Each structure stands twice: as C-alpha cells, then as structure tokens.
Amino acid sequence: MQVMKILKLVCAVIVLVVASSERGESRKRGRAVTTTSFEYTALSCRAHSASLSDYGGVGDGKTSNTKAFQSAISELSKYASEGGAQLYVPAGKWLTGSFSLISHFTLYLHRDAVLLASQDVNEWPVIKPLPSYGRGRDAAAGRYTSLIFGTNLTDVIVTGDNGTIDGQGAFWWQQFHKSKLKYTRPYLIELMFSDSIQISNLTLLNSPSWNVHPVYSSNIIVRGITIIAPVTSPNTDGINPDSCTNTRIEDCYIVSGDDCVAVKSGWDEYGIKFGWPTKQLVIRRLTCISPYSATIALGSEMSGGIQDVRAEDITAIHTESGVRIKTAVGRGGYVKDIYVKKFTMHTMKWAFWMTGNYGSHADKNYDPNALPEIKNINYRDMVAENVTMAARLEGIANDPFTGICMANVTIGMAAKAKKQPWTCTDIEGMTSSVTPPPCNLLPDQGPEKITACDFPEESLPIDMLEFKKCTYSLKLA
C-alpha cells in the first residue's frame, strides 16, 4: 500500500516536471529569435546591418517612427569607416516624417514594408531654397525637407525588394490648390551635393510633389523604380536629375501628373550664376503615362545648361508629348547634344514639342538678353500612332533652335488629327525618311542620311559602374 502511494507521488512529480518543461519551452519559443536572409545587387555591400525594430520602430501605421529612424541612422553612423551600415525596414506600415541619411549607408525595404509619410507638418523641417533656383517652386520662401533627405554624402543606397514609399500626397495637393502653403511641398527622395548614389527596386506612391530629385550630385543610378500618382495630381514629376553629372535612369515605370523624367539645371539668373549643368545622362527602358505632360522634358529650368543626354528604348502611352524642350527668353544656358532613339508612342497630343516661350520666371529680375542656346537635337528610329499633331517646334526670334535632326520616324495620325501636322518657327535642321512629311524648315535629305542622327559611339562613364551581389542574414526578435 505504501509502495503504491510512493509510485503515485513519483508519477505526479514527473507530470509536473514535464509540464513545467513544456511551459518553459513554450516561453522560449515565444521569445525565439528568427533569422531572415535576403540578397540584392548594389554598388556597395555593407559590413554591418540592423533592423528598424531594434531602435523602437513600430510598424502599425499609426505610431510615428521619425525618432526611430533618426536614432538608428545616428547609431549606425559609427560604422561609416568600418565597411558601412545597412538599416533594414521589416514588413509593416512605418509612419514617419522627414529623416536624413548618412554616407556609406543603405536603407533597405522589405517587400511588404511601407513607409507612410506623416501628414503632421511639424515632422517636416523647413530648409532654404535651392541656390540655383533662388526661391521655392510653390512659394517664394523655403521648402519642406524631403521625406528621405541627404546632403554632402558619399556612397548612399536606397533600395529594397520592391518595398513601398507612400507620400500620402492628397493632403499636400489640397493645400497647394487652396494656396495655403507657405513653403514648397516636400519630395519623396532628395539627395544634394552627393556622389555615388543608387535608388532602386522600390514603389513610390502619391508623392506630395516630385518623386526622386538628385541635385548637384554625380554618379547616380536610378533603376527598377515604379512611380504612381493620379494623372491630375500637381507637379508629381517622376525623376528629376538637376545639375547632375553621370546619371543613369533605367527600367522604370511611371504614371504621374507631370513629366515622367524632367531634366533640370537651375532657374533664370540664379541658375546662370550657379552654373552647374546636367550632363552625361542615360535614360533607357522607360515606360511613361502622363496625359498632361511629357515623357522626357528638358527644362524649363535649364539655365545652368543640359548636355549629352542619351535616351533609348522608351515607351509612352496616352502622354501629352514624347520629348519636350521647354525654355524662354531670360533662361540663358543651353540644351545641346541630345540623342533619342527607339521611341514608341501610343495616343499622343504631340510626338515632338519644343518651345522657346515657356514663360515662367523665378522673379522679375531675369535678364531679357539671356537667350538660351538649343542645338544638336537628334531623333532616330521612332514610331507613333494615334497622334493629334506630329510636331510643334517653336524657337525664339533671332535665336533659332539649330541642328535638329530626325531620321526614320513614322507618325500615325489620329482620326481627328490637326489638318496641319507640323508647325515650325525659328528652327533649323534636316530630316530623312520622316512621315508625315515635315515642315519646310526641316528639309528631307534622302534615305542616305538616315544614320545622321545616331548616338555617339563612345559609352558614358556611368555605364562602367558594376554591381555587386550583397547577401545578408539578420536576426529579428
């Protein structure tokens, strides 16, 4: 009898121990650390990596993460001279105001990560206007800092597995239309005075204004970017290289309320004085939808000059114009050595549009004697269908646009097209195998001149940059 009691007691103890062990294991599993592995291509890989969650980030779409981003980037800056650092943004909705990047740094977004731009204006510091503009674009005063900002940086990457940056722009668009903004609206990504930049594999939604704005920078690659905004949204330009050298834009899809790519270099007397051109720019494999603007615009802020732009393999769908040059008396500067080929256009208002009477000025102090120089503009191997007007080419009296070259261009006119498909004033140039027949200022030189408008044979330095495969394993709580 006594033995039976002892056996029962032993069994009870064993049950308690097992149960306790299982509860302990359960608690351990609840606190278990998981590991995520990922890889991507980049100009630089980093020696150190951390998650935003490690710095108090909360991805619930409601909690502000501005301080978490600032703290994480500040802490990771200590690795700048030790192989650089990467900040990983996990899946979730991460509400944030503006934050600034550092050198030798990568911001990486998980495919299910969404950065939500705060609608609290207190989370958007105000900075001075750009020196080459002299004022803000929306207002004469300063401008709100971009959501992701940086200045005087080297080797900076913003990338992901097609993670999303949502600017929640409707708030800003409404304020703009009501003329209630004291300062110019923020952009989504702006990097100034920087070198070696990569912006890639992201989806950008509903920017308050411009989406991607590298300015006064060099050695820039923008690739694999999807940009989407309502086609009626104000000034939601896609990618705006501005006073930049050696830039490559490729494999991007853009639907916007303004120009899909807008090439710039300063505004009137401020841009002339600052004197930083945009040059050595490659644009390839771009798809654009923008019913009220251009696929590629050169200007109108081009007072520092634009030179050596090469665009190829471009598709425009239901877009106002293909390539548009915008300038005016008072701009000064130049747009020259522009090469475009393999351009396909579907349902356009104009296939080609150049104007020397754009008119918008920073202030009344511009020099009326500062005339822009527009020359050596080349278009080759282009086809369009359902076009309202083939070309509207308007130079400046006593300052004609020269060296315009078009070859192997076929434009299918819409059923309700303009009776006069070409209008040309104050321009000079030539054509070869262009349909419908162009205006008299662009005489046909015969099929033997079909190669006259081709690209330069030498490659630009930006095409020499090589990507590395970066592989990471990151422990997540």
Automatic annotation (TrEMBL):
Keywords: Cell wall, Glycosidase, Hydrolase, Secreted, Signal. Residues 53-97 form the Rhamnogalacturonase A/B/Epimerase-like pectate lyase domain. Pfam families: Glyco_hydro_28, Pect-lyase_RHGA_epim. It is found in: Secreted, Cell wall. The keyword Secreted applies. One of its GO terms (molecular function) is polygalacturonase activity. Gene3D superfamilies: Single-stranded right-handed beta-helix, Pectin lyase-like. The keyword DNA-binding does not apply. GO terms for biological process: carbohydrate metabolic process. Residues 1-19 form the signal peptide. Belongs to the glycosyl hydrolase 28 family. This is Putative polygalacturonase. The lineage of its organism: Eukaryota, Viridiplantae, Streptophyta, Embryophyta, Tracheophyta.
